[in-house]
Amino acid sequence: MPLKWWQRAVFYQIYPRSFADSNGDGIGDLDGVTAHLDYLNGSADSLGIDAIWLNPVNPSPLDDWGYDVSDYCGIHPDLGDLASFDRLVAAAHRRGIRVIVDLVPNHTSNQHPWFIESRSSAANPKRDWYIWVPGSPTRPPNNWQSTFGGSAWKFEAATRAWYLHMFLEQQPDLNFRNPEVVEAIHDVIRFWLDRGADGFRIDVIAGLIKDAQLRDNPLRTATDPDIPWHAKGTQDPLYSHDRPEVHDIIRGFRRVSESYGDGASDDRILVGETWPREHERLADFLRPDELELAFNFRFLLARYDASRFRAAIEQTERSFGAGAWPTWTLSNHDFPRHITRYSREGDTDARARVAAVMLLTLRGTPFIYYGEEIGMRDAAIPAELKLDPVGRDGCRSPMQWSAARNGGFSTNDATWLPCGDFKAVNVAQQLNDTHSLLSLYRRLIQLRKQTPALAEGTYREFESAAEDCLVFHRETPSQHVIVALNMSNEPRELKTPTGKILLSTTAERAGESIASLSLAPNEAVILGASA
Ligand code: GLC
Known about the structure:
The protein has helices spanning 5-8, 30-35, 37-40, 82-94, 113-120, 179-194, 228-231, 246-258, 306-320, 338-343, 348-361, 427-431, 437-450, 452-456; strands at residues 11-14, 51-54, 98-103, 132-134, 153-156, 161-164, 199-202, 269-272, 293-294, 327-329, 365-369, 458-461, 469-476, 479-486, 492-494, 499-504, 513-514, 517-519, 524-529. It is built from 14 helices and 19 strands.
């Protein structure tokens, strides 16, 4: 089967408040994104990005920076309006870039008109749009913990009832057992597809439906340091998350998205922010009538360590099989950037290059988080400028375009979040430097597109690599590529078939013919094997 567009695509995640400020108010906006699309695709020195994912653009009181939506069918005034959204989609499509938007169906803001109605009285027709349990103020309905800490229940004295919030108390959970809620979210999906969006990244999708009896969650028994949801609390979210009924809800979303395009081409896509209870079950969400793609978060906390990466890849390959298509992501808006994480341990620049090769040569769709392609680190945020309630500001700092004021992000005296070190790390300085990280990302994306084994080949672990090297084969019937990542601080030798080096992260080795492979410390090589 020929690959679908979203299997070939390289995605780029844009945090709209932090990409580019077009109107000088210190906040990034949609027109700012439009003005920088050439950077992504459509001109000679573009990165080669096929699709962008925009973090939430809807009106919101910003308690959780847009993940608390107060109007699903509008644009936050800081970011523009529906006309600027339409301009962005049109300009992106002209360059061959698809646009997916963030859909946040699990909860609304407590300022959303639905919740304002719902909380107003126990008899309100929207009462049952949220999860209310009558009771006394001393005893929450069960032991569920909010992802952000503390009980997931908030008592409302006016109607003597608790409502559920799996995140902040300003983010009440919608009740997906109510068909009116399901229908209302279907309407939201249609609204954005009608406007030309190419699909959605769907927030907290595995959590949309909760246990009908609201049973207590048990304590977690197993932990894995590379699974981010294991780091969040001691509960196993058995009854609050990843319930079997969620698949019906997802199938409903898919029926709506499938009714767009010609049906067969999988034109519009659903990408889940999926936190299954067990990582092995991630592929359960990827079915012909459910999600096209699901985030695989195993690299978000993983240390720079070949055996940790190998374990994550092996587990993903094993549980996905041939039927499901993986995704890979090193960083996003919820965790410290990988380059910051790796810098705690050693030669950051070389490691960023090796990680880029890994991201862009694995079997599956890569997601690049804005700024990682130039090596942006988390910005240091002084205590008085912190905005996010759970401390994620550092990885959301303004894009570093140049060494000019505010890194070229904004002409305002102040930016919404402080900028990182744009004098040391910026696009302008790297654009024409063939040795820069940006040039490496661009070359890797090109190579991936020109090399069928990298785009669609199978994955197989290399037989005899040292423990601290991650080495794998990518193969089609007519092409054989070996990707060799030396993640140690020592040189390493590999017995490979003869071949030609297609790319190396250190010296200019492209074109070199080899009979066995010497790798410098923290060097990555892509080898086109002759046989
Ligand atoms: C997702 C988002 C995160 C947000 C949370 C609640 O995990 O990625 O940023 O805070 O959902 O909506």
